[in-house]
Specification:
Length: about 300
């Protein structure tokens, strides 16, 4: 008899795609012979507690259905345990699924990949970032990009991604360098002026923006991308290159690969996996082999 697995569902992800995505994903898993139960919380805290109950109860896998916020919430339940994580990515950004080479906005396809991984016992163990007691899978953002998030979250109109596009234009008009104090584990603290500092366990945020393009999920390190003081013209010229990761070649951009970093800057909020962590200072550390994930086999990897 196959073990029971748990779908962890955000019904509002992707403007309601989460609720619809759970059905084809569950169907694919049941057709593969798995017993499936669904967990939907009333609030984020309630959902997390229900997910943790499922993990404590011995569920065979926890499958997050939604966007990066739901996948990140699921990480809080499975990190450091033997319970594997599956991701049915139907949100706006889906950067955690993207880093794991999982199907995006294809819930039936994702369900089949998860079923095949469970049957074959194929799990990939990857690193996570951690800030205090909070785990993150993709990127911790601070500076210009987190101020765009702050402003977008305060706005009521327009809806969806357009709200954040407008917020970016407003923040761009008032662009100014931010005084940071960065402390790496292997050296003295340094004071710099920067446009933004991003700490990557994975390479991308914001739906494929490869801000930490060289970050790997299995190297035990975090990639700290520093975009130095630059003008609006320079930022506008460099910004499109973030989707290909070629912005790292620009002289205003530096990258540090470290196990631990502390970020300090006045009035700046940190966001990890798109969710607010709180005001800086924040200390992020890499935790090697922190979580098991269900993925399709990679070429040349057993």
């Amino acid at each position: 008899m196959t073990s029971e697995i748990t779908l962890f569902v955000n019904p509002t992800a992707g403007r309601g795609r989460g609720a619809h995505a759970a059905q084809p994903a569950a169907r694919a898993l049941r057709e593969a012979g798995f017993a499936v139960r669904t967990v939907v919380g009333v609030t984020a805290d309630d959902a997390l507690e229900r997910a943790r109950e499922a993990v404590r109860g011995g569920t065979g896998a926890l499958i997050a259905v939604g966007g990066d916020g739901m996948a990140s919430l699921a990480l809080q339940a499975v990190a450091g345990t033997r319970t594997p994580l599956g991701v049915v990515a139907v949100g706006t950004g889906n950067d955690i699924a993207r880093a794991l080479d999982l199907p995006i906005r294809d819930p039936a396809g994702a369900g089949r990949v998860i079923a095949e991984a469970l049957k074959a016992g194929h799990e990939r163990t990857v690193d996570l970032g951690r800030v205090g007691g909070r785990w993150f899978g993709s990127v911790l953002a601070s500076g210009f990009d987190s101020r765009v998030n702050d402003r977008g979250n305060r706005m009521r109109r327009p809806a969806g991604r357009l709200r954040y596009d407008l917020a970016m234009l407003v923040e761009l008009a008032s662009l100014r360098p931010i005084p940071y104090r960065l402390a790496f584990e292997d050296g003295p603290a340094r004071e710099i002026e920067a446009t933004l500092v991003a700490v990557g366990n994975g390479p991308s945020y914001g739906g494929g923006m490869r801000i930490c393009s060289g970050a790997r999920l299995d190297d035990g390190l975090l990639d700290v991308t520093v975009v130095g003081k630059c003008s609006r013209t320079t930022l506008l010229r460099v910004f499109p290159r973030v989707y290909s990761g070629t912005h790292l070649d620009h002289p205003a951009v530096t990258v540090h690969r470290v196990a631990k970093v502390t970020l300090e800057a006045p009035g700046v909020t940190g966001y990890a996996d798109g969710e607010p962590l709180g005001r800086l200072p924040l200390t992020a550390e890499a935790v090697p082999r922190a979580v098991r994930v269900l993925t399709a086999p990679r070429a040349g990897v057993p």
